[in-house]
Amino acid sequence: MKRIGITTTVPQEVLIAAGYKVIDLNNIFVTSNNYMEYIDIAEKDGFPKSMCAWIKGLYGVCIKEGIDEVVGVVEGDCSNTRALVEVLKLKGIKIYPFAYPNSHKLEDVKKSLDDFMDMFNVKKSDVEDVRNRLNKVREFLIEVDNLTVDGYATGFENHLYLVSSSDFNGDYLEFENMLKEKIKKIKDRNKKDYPIRLAYIGVPPMMGDIYDFVESIGAKIVYNEVQREFSFPRFKNNKDIYEQYYDYTYPYDIEFRLQEIKRQIKEREIDGVIHYTQAFCYRGIEDIIVKSKLDVPVINIEGDKLNELDARTKLRLEAFVDMLKDRRGWRR
Where would one find coiled-coil regions in this protein (predicted)? Predict the structure, then answer.
């Protein structure tokens, strides 16, 4: 089966209908035991030090892992992706552009998806067949999310399985079977409650240990914003592929994202929000809007190249959780 890399979540229904195995380059990069090797490849080829580690990682993955076809999201995601795909073209990699229109009008989303289907020579009916099959897998992801809120699944498990839905680990059937087994094990556990419930918003973290750390200090992340969006949790409200990608919050403006974030904060009884941003990313500026629009305390943490929390960030998170405990009147 042909492989195709993606720089972020794209309409994989189209790619699967076209006979591709979809590979999220981000997931290969961040889960690698030697992830710095990918960054080093990019910097040796001329990528500046003051460039987002994710962009360099994506480039390094393509070069080292021999990815020769890539879908690059040139509108609605990282502003550096447009330059990244130009460099990948220079290296002989075939690029398929995809755009989440800034207008966020349904007719514009439809046109973008129709163009994408034409690019891969697939019919909408075939894409809908794939979408309906993938939505059966998404049912299990919704269950994992609910088990997290109910105190059975951990924050890291929530993050891991939801973020993996960007490509279903390259095989949605195998991924579905894995989820079924994991859910059985999760349900067999004793429920575990934490005094503080946190939301994690922003791009998925470089530092995967953040989930275990916050649980070690008496808090739990029960909502992963962008990871949950990758799973398309509201698919039952969408009659077709057009509505599904129109309803997807991540690529659109911060005000649209905040509508769903506020809804989840209320439904999940969130005490505070961790807003993660990546160094050198324009999304860091959005923290100003986030803090002014949300009614719960927000802490902004920034990641760069490290794949684990540094001492300063741990100290800040501890102080944040202690403050939330004081607000709740919680005592040891």
Answer: none
Q: Strand (E) positions, the chain?
A: 2-6, 20-24, 69-75, 94-99, 196-202, 219-224, 272-278, 298-303
232 and 323 assigned to the same domain: yes
Residues 198 and 283 in one domain: yes
Give the pLDDT confidence score for residue 82 in this predicted structure: 87
Q: Are 306 and 279 in contact (CB under 8 A)?
A: no
| 10-residue mean pLDDT series, the chain (332 residues) | 93 97 94 91 92 91 95 85 92 96 96 98 97 97 98 97 96 97 97 95 91 97 97 96 97 94 97 89 78 95 87 97 87 47
Q: What total number of domains does the chain contain?
A: 2
User: Which residues 6+ apart lie within 8 Å of 147 measured at CB?
Assistant: 153, 183, 186, 187
- Do 95 and 150 lie in one domain? The reply is no
pLDDT of amino acid 332: 45
Among 106, 129, 137, 147, smallest CA distance to 245 is for 106
Which string of DSSP letters, residue by residue, matches 217-256? TTEEEEEEHHHHHHT-TTGGG-SSHHHHHHH--TTS-HHH
| Domain annotation covers residue 134 | no
Residue at 132 is within a domain: no
Q: Are 96 and 119 in contact (CB under 8 A)?
A: yes
> With contact defined as beta carbons under 8 Å apart, do 120 and 6 qualify?
no
Residue 116 within any structural domain of the chain: yes
CATH code (residue 25): 3.40.50.11890
Cβ pair 224, 162 in contact under 8 A: yes
Q: What is the DSSP letter of 279?
A: T
Round to whole Å and give the CA distance between 57 and 40.
9
Q: Is the pTM of this model over 0.85?
A: yes
